[in-house]
Design brief:
Elements lengths: L2 H14 L9 H17 L26 H6 L1 H9 L3 H14 L4 H12 L3 H11 L6 H12 L3 H13 L7 H8 L10 H13 L2
Helix pairs in contact: 1-7, 1-9, 4-5, 5-6, 6-7, 7-8, 8-9, 9-10, 9-11, 10-11
Length: about 200
């Protein structure tokens, strides 16, 4: 399948696969819409615009977040307040809630970038995946490589895929195998792992 079809699908999967997100109750949805709409309308000064390459914001100790989608869905305003105070996991959870309630866009990317800056490697990966829409893959590839080194499975899968297809980087199946070999940190049922295994099969693992 040509990469023009696969790549947007992969980028979309990066955005949603970590969520396991169930919709909030109608009351929660109304409250969340108010909190999210207020933030989107005023754009607080503590929330960065996702304009810089996440690779340049990723701390050396970045890793996997321990986050609660349910908790953030039930009380978005409090979740956003904790994000403002510097809670990386709540920034990441809030970004996923925004994605589900609105869609991937400037607000979710900004929350992912704040999570990235606070040490959530998969936040960096999500911003990079969104940046692929520009057609410039230098920043995404640099981000995926760094985030894979910090054990983010989707970053490893994305970088491996780009190396197989030559997306913004020279084709190199050997390097791709090394990245894809790190995609199953969360087990075989994880979407990043399943995609990695499919790519390995494609090139002969």
């Amino acid at each position: 399948m040509p990469h023009r079809k696969i790549r947007p699908l992969l980028a979309a999967l990066v955005m949603i696969s970590a969520a396991g997100l169930s919709a909030p109750t109608p009351v929660d949805a109304a409250d969340n819409n108010d909190a999210i709409g207020k933030m989107e309308g005023t754009w607080p000064d503590w929330l960065p615009r996702a304009e810089q390459c996440p690779a340049d914001s990723m701390p050396a100790n970045a890793g996997a977040p321990a986050f609660s989608i349910e908790g953030c869905s039930a009380a978005a305003e409090q979740c956003l307040d904790r994000c403002r105070a510097g809670n990386a996991s709540d920034c990441y959870a809030a970004a996923l809630v925004v994605q589900r309630m609105i869609k991937t866009g400037p607000l979710s990317d900004a929350l992912f970038l704040r999570a990235c800056k606070l040490g959530v490697a998969s936040g960096c990966t999500n911003v990079a995946a969104s940046m692929e829409d520009s057609g410039d893959y230098a920043c995404p590839n640099r981000t995926y490589e760094l985030a894979c080194g910090r054990d983010d499975p989707w970053a490893c899968t994305m970088m491996g895929f780009h190396l197989i297809k030559g997306i913004g980087v020279e084709k190199n199946n050997d390097r791709a195998r090394r990245f894809l070999a790190k995609s199953c940190r969360f087990g075989d049922t994880d979407e990043a792992c399943a995609k990695a295994k499919a790519f390995l099969k494609e090139i002969g693992d």
